[in-house]
Design brief:
Blueprint lengths: L15 H23 L6 H67 L1
Length: 112
């Protein structure tokens, strides 16, 4: 996940990605906890199995959401990298122009 460190994930899916991912994660955890608690209660194995199945399906939905969003995150990461490169190039061009301006000012001052 370090490669997405400088990426604003709120831009993925028009800002819905973070909200949907958190919602699915919380629902998945709740379903898994409910299934785990059901193991200690007096319910049939079929009910327990169904609860674990529901939790698993929510985790699959979360995985699919993250997988689908990865392409958008890659694009945003590429854009962020391009902006960083443009900023660096602009800085170096500004320094070079500034140095050339100082040198030309000194040359003009020495000539006249």
């Amino acid at each position: 996940m370090k490669r997405y460190e400088s990426v604003d994930l709120t831009f993925i899916d028009n800002g819905n990605f973070i909200r949907d991912a958190v919602k699915l994660y919380n629902e998945s955890v709740e379903l898994w906890q409910d299934a785990k608690i059901s193991e200690t209660s007096n319910v049939s194995e079929e009910v327990i199995y169904d609860k674990y199945q529901d939790a698993y399906e929510h985790y699959v939905k979360l995985y699919d959401l993250i997988s689908d969003a990865e392409e958008g995150a890659d694009f945003l990461q590429h854009k962020a990298t391009q902006k960083e490169l443009l900023a660096k190039k602009s800085y170096y061009i500004g320094v070079v122009i500034g140095v050339l301006g100082i040198i030309s000012g000194i040359v003009v001052a020495l000539i006249f």
